[in-house]
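Ticket #4471: structure output looks truncated?

Reporter: J.K.
Steps to reproduce: submitted the chain below (281 residues) through the standard prediction queue, then opened the result file.
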Amino acid sequence: MPTEESRAARQARPAPGALLLCRAEPESVAPAAQLLRERMLLASAGGEWSVLVPEGRPWLEGGEPVDRVLTGWATALAVGAPWPVLALWWDADRTGYTLASGFRRPVGYVWLANGTPAGEGEAMHTFAGRLGLDPVLDVQALDDLTGPDPAADARARMRGLLAVLTRAGVSLPADLAPGDSADRLHEAARDHPHVRIEGAAGWRHALRAELDAVEGGRLGPLLPWTGGPQSHRLALAQVAAGLPVTAWGLRRRSAGWTVAGAVLLAHGALGLVYNAVWPLD
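Returned output as attached by the reporter:
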């Protein structure tokens, strides 16, 4: 049987937590976030950034690894949006990030709890390029995060990453500190102007609102109601990609990847049968 000391040690271990940073204003992020069907708080995180603070039920109640959930969520949000999504996550053993942008393969990096780098250095360069960071000063700061530093634990590494992101316009609300538990993050987010994202929102309403939100963005010419060959090819590609992603998520019982696959399928199906589902006025 576990001793009282071992129980205390487990209780003292940092609780998992996560944040989703979106390079868009809250009014653009809110419709897309409804698609995740998870309860979250949404707040501004700088001039052109927003932050989603999830309750964390998949990893707190379902036992799913927080990094897997967040990667799936970031991918799902970025698929149909003209802005990138950066997932920051941590648990008792590791801390890391995942950057998702459109249909490109997500890129990420991981540090062990003691701050030991456990990722590929090239990932930092890809990360900087996709966010348009300074190729000299910012890349050098990111490279420093991939080198040995006995004085820096995982939390310090994440603070270093955020320091670089401040030069890209990220400004997290006060007291919203990576490394805290999901409950503590939620409490901190409530103290600032926020939007509550309810998990039970109807998928049809959320999907229509999300598509309306991106109509004027870079993906506008590819959306279903344009009726062009590009939108039709995109819809077929989304269905083709969504099927294996959804199957993989269900097989692994991964809520994040299942959502990502479902969003791909929903977007693709909408593109193929849009006129039948929402006829033009």
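Triage note (M.O.): checked the attachment and the full token line is present. The first strand starts at residue 17 and ends at 22.
Status: closed, working as intended.
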